[in-house]
C-alpha cells in the first residue's frame, strides 16, 4: 500500500503559515484525498474476487448498509497505519507549527507601521458622540499573527469534526474497537515514536 502524496509535509516556514491560502489548500487537499473519500478508500480495501463471483448475489437488491462485506483486519490496520494516521499526524504537525508561529513575535509584519500609525491617529482623534454617534468606532487592522491564530483555531475545529466522522466510518467498516480517534491516534504515535 502506498502512502498518499497529501501526507507529505510541506516545508514548514513562517512564510508557509502566513500564506493562508497555501495553508488552507494543503489542508483541503489532504482532507479530500483521505477523509472526504473515506468510503472509497475503505471500499478499495475489499477484495471481492477472492471467493469468485456468486450469481445469486445479484438476485436481491442489497440496501442494508450492514450487509457490506467486512474488510480484512490486516488491510484495515495497514490503511490506518500507513495512510490515515500519517495524514492526520502531518496535518497536526502543520497546525501545531503554525500555531507556534502565530504566538511568536512577528518582526517582518508588513502592516506593522501602518497599524501603529492608525493607532496613533486614533488616540489623537477628538470624538463628539453627540454630533456623530458613530465617530467613536475604530476598527484596528488585525496583525497577521492574529489572523493566523484565528485560522489555526478554526482549522483545528474542522479537524475534530472530520476526524470524528472518518473514524466513525473506519470503526463501522473495519470492525475496530470502539476507542476514540484520539486514543487510536495516540496509540499509533506511541508505536511509531512520534
TrEMBL record:
InterPro entries: MIX23 (IPR019171), MIX23_fungal (IPR016805). It comes from the Eukaryota. One of its GO terms (cellular component) is mitochondrial intermembrane space. It holds the Pfam family MIX23. Belongs to the MIX23 family. This is Caffeine-induced death protein Cid2.
